[in-house]
Amino acid sequence: MKSSLPKKERGVRQYLTNRYWVIVIASFCAVLWGSAFPVLKVSYVELGIAPDDRYAIIVLAGIRFFLAGVIIFGITVLGIRQSPKVEKKLLPQLFLIGLLQISLQYFFFYNGLAHTTGMKAAVLTSVGIFFVVVLAHFVYADDRLDWRKMIGLTAGFAGIILINSGEHLTLDFSWQGEGFMIMAGFVSAVGTILAKRTSKEVHPFVLTAWQMFLGSLLLIAVGLPGLKPHAMVFTNKALLLLFYSAFLSATAFSLWYAILKYNKAGEISVYKFMTPVSGSILSALFIPSERLTLNMFMALSLVSVGVIIVNYQRKVPQEALLREGPY
Length: 327
Known about the structure:
Elements: H1 7-16, H2 19-47, H3 54-79, H4 91-113, H5 118-139, H6 147-163, H7 175-198, H8 204-223, H9 236-262, H10 265-268, H11 274-286, H12 294-311, H13 318-323
Helix pairs in contact: 2-9, 2-11, 3-4, 3-8, 3-9, 4-7, 4-8, 5-6, 5-7, 6-11, 6-12, 8-9, 11-12
């Protein structure tokens, strides 16, 4: 039985459903997101943003994602010759994804980070992966929670705790700190499930571009009224870092939504455990005050084991994959 998909789309899908390409792409996305940690740390210093200046941080995030959206629109139109237009009925969905994945997630993340420790932030942000797996269990019949996922999630979560074990972990809880970090993970998980559904009707690049464009406008609208004069000083180095952060967001989200379209959300989300681990390693490599530790590599090993366990399955013929409809 031949697939009814166009030849070009069948070719793309063949790569995006290939287990090894999924591993490469998902890991690459995680490393890109991880590189944002040292880039943002250096950017705040270079721009002269005070650690407690939330309005400047929110505006910077808005500018970053606005530029990322423009980059993806350009690649979509000029690179892959795909129209960025979408049906009017889909605009509310795209707006909601932008609100969840960009506006609310980063609002909760940046504000929560200011009221909790780095270890708690890393641990609680990773809770979002659990939310994705649990939501996928109820939304998709073929993405159920099983023992493999539970063991894999436990290994990944242990890795995140291990890499932050030098910090003091307490059980104190505040809504503006720990509560906001949990909310950041939750809205991101809901956005991921919604994006997977919408990607069946919208090209992943178009979806990403609209999500970032609409979400960035909301961030800028919230942060701009409270922005102080000269809160950010754009040097050449700061501009270079800003464009890189926009590029990494554009690339990571676009590729992530591409594999999300054809793969199970509960399985590929486990790769996001690599983000804080790669962020810590890259920070140690590029920020003089931070050092590589044995814990970092042990954490990376735990995360890798978790990913392998979650994605281990008997080999399915590629022809069977091509005959199936989108997940």
